[in-house]
Recover the amino acids of this structure.
């Protein structure tokens, strides 16, 4: 879902870049206020964690393999503002190290996978855990829903940006992106649930901490 | 450590490697923006951009095969999006396919579109590869910070770069342990479950390591800022090559816009 350079036009690049820069700036301020200098080593470590966790892929039907994106996981485990910062760092590094996603389209990619996915999935997680009883099962269902929606939200945002740039009409690119990502999202949801349950089993206190 | 795929050619010795990271970053950004702004179908301008890139690549001593292989990363995305457009763009129909009575016309507009898409995204990804393969990540991050990127993000990125190798080793050890315990071919569900608990314990280990690193740094007087002795300074060659290359890049753009 990383959009390379050359696909988006200048107005879309400028708009997504401005929104991303503003939101990341705000996230840095909010996080600095809540945990101060302690954020830097911990968040760097967690960004490295997301990066390393993405290396662990598992086979999906048809010879392809799935791996974690991590936006929902970040939002659930440490909170949306910290999640925005960590996902942005991961996306910047992916563009610079692996050329996964372009330099000029970085704003769009951060918006899709770092901002919309994090806040969208956090909203869903809070909603589900509020409706369902506060049990292990409720949290896990919330995690699954958050994982799936994080992927769907970012796919939808990417489809909108591609359509707005005139790369492809939305009637074509929208259903195509959502269709493919409905499956990828199922994998993300499954992994999110499994990681949340593993964290619950060994460090339940992390889930009870105040999120940033 | 059994992985060396991060900025692996950044320690070669060439005039491109010697340039200031800030100059290289700004030139790459300018190059990519120029390509995006160049109108569709300006093949001569795209060829000129390609010429500039080839010249820089030749000077940089980067292995050509490595660069080409790296750049193929964008192909699936281009083909996926391009295929639809070949048939839907308006234009003169050049050829058509009939699949089960379904008329698919290949238009010249469609071909121009996919050609432009391919040229733009390939040239951009090549520029990005030249930038990151001739600059070590710490130097690049320092350059970006000097250009005004938020300090916190840059510091998080440099922490991430420092600990990435450690966590990747951790992941490889976990993978080894898993593989030596899995006999035959376990079901996807079982494998996903294993990966889930592996990522779970990786999270806990990273989190706890982060806490320990912070405690150790606080004990040594960390106040949220990093201090280095490296004073990045632009020399005359950096400035001259920067300006010359920037003008050279703007020439094809200006030509394609006036035409």
């Amino acid at each position: 879902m990383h959009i390379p350079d050359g696909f988006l036009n200048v107005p879309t690049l400028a708009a997504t870049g401005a929104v991303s820069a503003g939101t990341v700036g705000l996230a840095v301020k909010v996080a600095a206020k809540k945990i101060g200098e302690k954020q830097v080593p911990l968040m760097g470590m967690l960004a490295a964690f997301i990066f390393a966790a993405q290396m662990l892929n598992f086979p999906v039907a048809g010879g392809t393999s799935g791996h974690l994106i991590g936006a929902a996981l970040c939002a659930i485990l440490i909170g949306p503002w910290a999640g925005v910062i960590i996902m942005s760092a991961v996306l910047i590094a992916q563009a610079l190290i692996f050329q996964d996603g372009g330099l000029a389209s970085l704003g769009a990619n951060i918006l899709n996978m770092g901002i919309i996915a994090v806040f969208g999935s956090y909203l869903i997680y809070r909603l589900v855990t509020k409706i369902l009883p506060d049990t292990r099962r409720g949290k896990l269902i919330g995690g699954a829903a958050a994982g799936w929606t994080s992927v769907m939200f970012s796919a939808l945002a990417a489809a909108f940006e591609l359509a707005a740039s005139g790369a492809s009409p939305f009637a074509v690119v929208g259903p195509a992106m959502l269709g493919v990502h409905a499956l990828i999202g199922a994998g993300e949801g499954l992994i999110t649930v499994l990681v949340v349950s593993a964290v619950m089993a060994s460090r339940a206190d992390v889930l009870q901490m105040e999120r940033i | 450590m059994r992985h060396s795929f991060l900025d692996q050619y950044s320690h070669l010795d060439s005039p491109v490697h010697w340039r200031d990271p800030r100059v290289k970053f700004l030139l790459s950004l300018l190059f990519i923006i120029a390509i995006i702004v160049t109108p569709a179908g300006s093949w001569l301008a795209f060829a000129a951009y390609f010429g500039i890139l080839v010249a820089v690549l030749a000077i940089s001593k980067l292995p050509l095969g490595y660069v080409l292989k790296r750049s193929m990363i964008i192909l699936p995305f281009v083909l996926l999006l391009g295929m639809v457009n070949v048939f839907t763009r308006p234009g003169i129909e050049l050829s058509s396919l009939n699949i089960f009575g379904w008329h698919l016309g290949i238009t010249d507009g469609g071909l121009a579109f996919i050609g432009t898409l391919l040229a733009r995204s390939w040239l951009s990804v090549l520029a990005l590869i030249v930038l990151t393969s001739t600059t070590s990540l710490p130097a690049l991050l320092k350059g970006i910070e000097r250009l005004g990127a938020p300090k916190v993000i840059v510091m998080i990125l440099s922490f991430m770069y420092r600990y990435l190798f450690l966590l990747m080793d951790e992941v490889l050890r976990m993978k080894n342990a898993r593989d030596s315990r899995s006999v035959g071919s376990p079901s996807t569900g079982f494998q996903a479950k294993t990966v889930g608990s592996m990522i779970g314990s990786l999270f806990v280990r990273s989190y706890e390591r982060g806490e320990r690193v912070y405690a150790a740094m606080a004990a040594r007087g960390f106040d949220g800022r990093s201090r280095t002795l490296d004073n990045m300074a632009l020399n005359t060659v950096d400035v001259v090559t920067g300006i010359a290359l920037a003008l050279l890049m703007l020439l094809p753009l200006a030509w394609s816009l006036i035409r």
Observations:
- Residues 10-208 of chain A form a domain with the Arp2/3 complex 21 kDa subunit ARPC3 fold (CATH 1.10.1760.20).
